[in-house]
Design a protein that fits this description.
Elements (H helix, E strand, L loop, with lengths): L3 E3 L9 H5 L5 E7 L5 E5 L9 H5 L5 E3 L1
The protein binds iron/sulfur cluster (2 copies).
The site of one iron/sulfur cluster has 12 residues, from helix 1.
C-alpha cells in the first residue's frame, strides 16, 4: 500500500517537500503536470509516513495514510 498519496496536478514545483523529507524519499519526477510544473514522486520504500511533506506543502498535494 502507498504510505503517501499524491495529487500531483496540484503541485507547483516549489520542492519544499523534498527539502523537508527526513528520508530523502521525494524527488523530482521528470514529468510535467497540466499547470506546467515538474511534479514530485515518492519512493514508498523509503517513506516512513512522518507527515512532514503533508505539513510543508502549500498546495495540499499529500495525503498521509
Ligand atoms: S511542496 Fe507541494 S507544491 Fe511544492 S514541490 Fe512538493 S508537492 Fe509540489
Ligand atoms: S511522509 Fe515523511 S518520509 Fe514519507 S515522503 Fe513525506 S516527508 Fe518523506
Amino acid at each position: 500500500m502507498q504510505k503517501v498519496n499524491t495529487d500531483v496536478e496540484r503541485c507547483k514545483g516549489c520542492y519544499l517537500c523534498i527539502a523537508n523529507c527526513p528520508k530523502e524519499a521525494i524527488k523530482k519526477s521528470g514529468k510535467v503536470n497540466l499547470k506546467g510544473y515538474e511534479y514530485i514522486i515518492v519512493d514508498n520504500d523509503k517513506c516512513i509516513s512522518c507527515g512532514s511533506c503533508y505539513q510543508v506543502c502549500p498546495d495540499y498535494v499529500f495525503e498521509v495514510n
